Amino acid sequence: MSLLKINLLVLGWLVDCYICSPHIVSLDRFTFVADDRDLFISHSASLEQVNNRSYMSGHIMINRLLNDITLVSSMDIIRPHRPEMRLYNVKLNFCSVLNNGYKNRFIKTLYNTYAEFLNYKPKCPLKPNFNYSLTRAYVDEDILPDLLPECSYRLKMIFQLKSKLLAHMQLDGRLITKGGKM
Fold first, then answer.
1. From CA 159, how far away is CA 37, in angstroms rounded?
2. Of the N and C termini of the chain, which has fewer Cβ atoms inside 10 Å?
3. Is residue 31 a contact partner of residue 170, using CB atoms and an 8 Å limit?
4. Do the Cβ atoms of 130 and 48 come closer than 8 Å?
5. CA 163 from chain center: how many Å?
């Protein structure tokens, strides 16, 4: 391989790694816990780290028709020498999100981003004895605003049916500026 080709490969790699996306989104924890053990036939959550990217996979299978699900979600960011900051704390009709009934752009973008990693786009009511699977989902760093600071974050999601707790999920991770050392 000529020196010119090697230089072009290295330059292309540098452009891709350091100019196109200024962040690396790293996940340290991805959990899904079934609080209503009678509802879930099976469930899983796993995290895989490959080349500065975190991939989430998992599945759920329930034993009865499920409708009218409420989602309580919050996201906190933690930065060194600063108080923990809550970015949001919201209660949503999860079935409206699944049925694409929410007009909020952030919620639609979030749902559509992860829906492409699902084996089936779920709609309410959720079907019994159906394997809903998430395969190698990741956060696309290119959708993040450029001026985000380096931080750790925690995303919590609680799934409820009326006041009954069905399950909860948590993601913990770090947002790292390329070249940063968080």
1. 13
2. N
3. yes
4. no
5. 25
